[in-house]
Specification:
146 residues
Length: 146
């Protein structure tokens, strides 16, 4: 906002068009960098919220699956070249739907399998813990997808 108009003014203080173009470039740069910062911050904030809810699900297998998925996306371990940003309009709509579907699926299966796994390893106490973990997971896992 300041550098571009100042540089234009230093080159030719009498040319109003160049100073105006400098003000326009500066304003565009301010808007562009502000929007980038706001969207980057909100993306990190929601990613952290998703990780927190995954931890609150109390399911260690789900936490590990979620952590692996986040790390895989962040580091691109599959070595598949991805452009930054949105690939297509279809991806804009399908990605959230698939994330929510995976969360609902994981929550539902966890509600059924967690008591069984708990009973198998710890008996009655494990069954009660499994019911609690499964019930919390029914709510928490779909929220991670949102």
């Amino acid at each position: 906002l300041v550098v571009a108009p100042a540089a234009a003014f230093m080159k030719s203080p009498t040319n109003v068009k160049k100073i105006g173009a400098g003000v326009g470039k500066g304003a565009l740069s301010l808007f562009s960098h502000s929007a980038s910062g706001i969207f980057g911050f909100s993306a990190r904030l929601w990613a952290t919220a998703g990780q927190t809810v995954a931890i609150l699900s109390l399911d260690p297998e789900y936490r590990q699956w979620h952590r692996d998925r986040v790390v895989n996306e962040a580091t691109n371990l599959n070595r598949v070249w991805k452009r930054r940003g949105v690939q297509s309009l279809q991806e804009i709509f399908l990605r959230p739907i698939t994330d929510i579907f995976l969360g609902v699926t994981a929550g539902t299966t966890g509600f059924i399998t967690a008591p069984y796994k708990g009973a198998k390893t710890r008996g009655r106490r494990g069954f009660v813990e499994g019911v609690a973990i499964g019930t919390i997971g029914v709510v928490a896992k779909p929220v991670v997808g949102v």
